[in-house]
């Protein structure tokens, strides 16, 4: 796959606030890339820089091998599906979709065929004469998609397109988007703060926070091997525990020494203090005393498919988050067991003093 | 019981609002000059109205000034809104405060101030000075009605148009202007009515020998209002009524068409 978009060390600040602190990103042709992060992490600004609505303070934007940093938005070969769709309210559905084509002086026959084709593609056949305010949120979302794709962009930028929809519709639209992407064969650059959305649809997930890219990789890599506590915490629920390497490939967590798969080679020599991430669904409940840790259930919550429980360790120093299909009662003493491959060792985040020293350099 | 009381209340309000106008309409067709005795149906006051050069020129002045002032104020006000949108919020707010002062200011102050201003710069008072004064006091209303239409949403729509390849000019013409249109229309109509309605400012800024409807009526008060004024008021009222009915029927039909199309 060839590279289509490249961001070279993009820096952007608004007034005195740093929004992007040097973003390097590469998007390959026909890839589904998702920028994931909490609000204010800089993901929307990144998208707006690619779309041409903001100029970076530093760094370059490359598109298909050309530097497009100074190219205005209306000359870029990409289209955006905006957060609240930004459909033109005084135009009909058909006129909205035709807008980009009219600008390019296409023939009326071509425009008519394109509208028909696009509406069919988004399952809104025959809706071209409706007014925008007669359409539901989900339908408006589809119209926004149709309006963008009739221009045959090479990249579609999607700014939280499902954010305003309810849960069920959102899940349906996720399938729709993946189907559309397959049918169109174009690149999607998608923005969301919803980790589930990101993991479900993407080929590559880019986790951002405070203007930095924290980690990028396939959804599996991001979920199974988060590089730091922020990513682990943001991508799904997790237990982030204090640990210390007591010997080569042995980590001590909550008073129990435990063999793991990371050692000096991975940068975790003995005596190093580390963060340990254990996903709540990876912890098995076994009878008391038969697991590696023991604890008492202090709360229980039924959340649809499974139960979520908080378990306090024997000495009271650690609270474990567990997810399990079986019901256990509050107050019950249980044992807990985890397979070695489900223990993820991570570097401790640097202390503020250490980070400051590094910044000075 | 509650309903009957409610209905009675509505009837009373309607009577208060429309009985005086109905009286006026009736008297405009009265044969005698009397304001209290009905002597028979006649169109003589209408004949007098259309025959009077004084009245016809006052009518022409009133409406031509209203249309011109509203047009100029709408263009200037809309441009001001667009300019203000590009300013820093602090400057924009300051300008808005200045914009609001003339609207709260008493007409008498504005009128006298404008009169003194015209005297000071030796601008002959007449048609042009009235037009200038009316345009001045209409602009703040245009700004106030157009400004709310230009917001974050308009910015986003503008960006969406650029995203689809439109030039800035094209996006402005095809997207921004239609978005502002309801505000522009409101501003225009508001300016028009304010101008037609105005007496005080016109009184101070007009010269000798030029009248609008309101100043003409005022000058007649001294010698007694002639029923031809009732005829004029009746015509104005009926025109407004017909326009209102047309607008409403149109709206209704549009809604029905839309409902049928859905």
SSE blueprint:
The complex is a heterodimer of chains A (361) and B (262).
Chain A: E1 3-14, E2 17-28, E3 32-36, H1 43-51, E4 58-63, E5 66-67, E6 78-81, H2 93-103, H3 108-121, H4 137-149, E7 155-159, H5 167-184, E8 187-192, H6 195-201, E9 204-209, E10 212-217, H7 219-224, H8 229-234, E11 239-247, E12 250-253, E13 256-259, E14 273-278, E15 284-286, E16 293-303, E17 306-313, E18 319-324, E19 333-337, E20 344-347, H9 352-360
Parallel strand pairs in A: 3-8, 3-9, 6-7, 7-8
Antiparallel strand pairs in A: 1-2, 1-4, 4-5, 9-10, 11-12, 11-14, 12-13, 14-20, 15-19, 16-17, 16-19, 17-18
Chain B: H1 2-28, H2 44-51, H3 53-85, H4 89-104, H5 107-120, H6 127-146, H7 152-163, H8 168-197, H9 200-205, H10 213-221, H11 228-261
Descriptive terms for the model:
heterodimer, A: 361 residues, alpha+beta, OB fold (Dihydrolipoamide Acetyltransferase, E2P), 6-stranded mixed beta sheet, 5-stranded antiparallel beta sheet, 9 helices, disordered C terminus, B: MetI-like fold, 11 helices
Please characterize this protein's 3D structure.
The complex is a heterodimer of chains A (361) and B (262). With 361 residues, chain A is of the alpha+beta class. Chain A has 2 domains: 3-224, P-loop containing nucleotide triphosphate hydrolases (Rossmann fold, 3-Layer(aba) Sandwich); 237-360, OB fold (Dihydrolipoamide Acetyltransferase, E2P) (Beta Barrel). Chain A has 9 helices and 20 strands. Chain A has helices at 43-51, 93-103, 108-121, 137-149, 167-184, 195-201, 219-224, 229-234, 352-360; strands spanning 3-14, 17-28, 32-36, 58-63, 66-67, 78-81, 155-159, 187-192, 204-209, 212-217, 239-247, 250-253, 256-259, 273-278, 284-286, 293-303, 306-313, 319-324, 333-337, 344-347. A 6-stranded mixed β-sheet of chain A has the order 6-7-8-3-9-10, with helices on both faces. In chain A, strands 13-12-11-14-20 form a 5-stranded antiparallel β-sheet. A 5-stranded antiparallel β-sheet of chain A has the order 15-19-16-17-18, with no helix packed on it. In chain A, a hairpin with a 2-residue loop joins strand 1 and strand 2 (17-28). In chain A, helix 2 (93-103) crosses helix 3 (108-121). Chain A starts with a strand and ends with a helix. Chain B is mainly alpha-helical. Chain B has 2 domains: 1-42; 55-230, MetI-like fold, CATH 1.10.3720. Chain B is built from 11 helices and no strands. The radius of gyration of chain B is 23 Å and the shape is globular. The model of chain B has no long low-confidence stretch (mean pLDDT 90). The A-B interface holds A 51-53, 72-75, 79-80, 82, 84, 86-90, 99-100, 103-104, 129-131, 134, 147-148, 151 and B 156-157, 159-168, 170, 174-175, 178-179, 181, 258, 261-262.
């Amino acid at each position: 796959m060839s590279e289509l978009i490249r961001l070279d060390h993009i820096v952007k600040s608004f007034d005195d606030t740093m929004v992007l602190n040097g973003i390097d990103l590469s998007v390959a042709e026909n890839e589904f890339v998702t920028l994931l992060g909490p609000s204010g992490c800089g993901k929307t600004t990144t998208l707006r820089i690619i779309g041409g609505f903001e100029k970076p303070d530093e760094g370059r934007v490359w598109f298909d091998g050309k530097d497009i940093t100074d190219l205005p938005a209306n000359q870029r070969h990409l289209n955006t599906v905006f957060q609240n769709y930004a459909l033109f309210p005084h135009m009909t559905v058909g006129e909205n979709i035709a807008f980009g084509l009219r600008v390019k002086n296409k023939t009326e026959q071509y425009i008519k065929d394109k509208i028909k084709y696009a509406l069919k593609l988004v399952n809104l056949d025959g809706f071209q004469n409706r007014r925008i305010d007669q359409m539901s949120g989900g339908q408006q979302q589809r119209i926004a998609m149709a309006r963008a794709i009739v221009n045959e962009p090479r990249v579609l930028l999607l700014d939280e397109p499902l954010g305003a929809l309810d849960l069920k519709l959102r899940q349906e639209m996720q399938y729709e988007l993946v189907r559309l992407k397959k049918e169109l064969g174009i690149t999607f650059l998608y923005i969301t703060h919803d980790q589930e959305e990101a993991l479900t649809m993407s080929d590559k997930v880019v986790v951002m926070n405070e203007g930095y890219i924290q980690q990028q990789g396939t959804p599996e890599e991001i979920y199974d091997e988060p590089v730091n506590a922020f990513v682990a915490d943001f991508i799904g629920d997790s237990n982030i525990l204090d640990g210390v390497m007591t010997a080569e490939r042995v980590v001590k967590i909550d008073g129990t020494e435990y063999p793991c798969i990371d050692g000096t080679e991975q940068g975790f020599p003995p005596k190093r203090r580390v963060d340990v991430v254990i996903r709540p669904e990876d912890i098995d409940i076994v009878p008391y005393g038969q697991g590696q840790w023991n604890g008492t259930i202090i709360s229980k919550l039924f959340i649809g498919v499974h139960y979520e429980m908080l378990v306090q360790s024997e000495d009271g120093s650690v609270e474990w988050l567990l997810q399990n299909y079986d019901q256990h009662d509050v107050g019950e003493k249980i044992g807990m067991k985890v397979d070695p491959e489900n223990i993820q060792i991570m570097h401790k985040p640097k202390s503020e003093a250490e980070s400051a020293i590094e910044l000075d350099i | 019981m509650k309903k009957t009381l409610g209905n009675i209340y509505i009837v009373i309000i309607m009577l208060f609002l429309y009985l005086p106008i109905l009286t006026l309409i009736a008297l405009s067709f009265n044969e005698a000059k009397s304001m209290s005795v009905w002597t028979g149906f006649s169109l003589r006051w209408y004949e007098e109205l259309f025959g009077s050069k004084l009245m016809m020129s006052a009518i022409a002045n009133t409406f031509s000034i209203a249309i011109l002032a509203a047009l100029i104020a709408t263009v200037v006000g809309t441009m001001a809104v667009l300019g203000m949108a590009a300013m820093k919020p602090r400057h924009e707010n300051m300008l808005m405060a200045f914009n609001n002062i003339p609207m709260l200011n008493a007409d008498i102050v504005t009128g006298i101030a404008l009169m003194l201003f015209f005297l000071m710069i030796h601008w002959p008072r007449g048609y042009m000075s009235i037009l200038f004064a009316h345009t001045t006091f209409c602009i703040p209303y245009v700004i106030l009605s157009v400004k709310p239409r230009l917001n974050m949403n308009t910015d986003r729509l503008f960006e969406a148009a650029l995203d689809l390849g439109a030039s800035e000019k094209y996006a402005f013409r095809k997207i921004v202007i239609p978005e502002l249109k309801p505000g522009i229309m409101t501003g225009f109509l508001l300016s028009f009515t304010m101008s037609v309605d105005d007496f005080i400012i016109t009184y101070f800024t007009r010269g000798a020998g030029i009248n609008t409807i309101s100043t003409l009526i005022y000058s007649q008060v001294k010698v007694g209002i002639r029923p031809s004024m009732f005829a004029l008021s009746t015509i104005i009222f009926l025109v407004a009524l017909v326009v209102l009915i047309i607008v409403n029927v149109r709206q209704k039909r549009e809604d029905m068409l839309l409902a049928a199309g859905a």
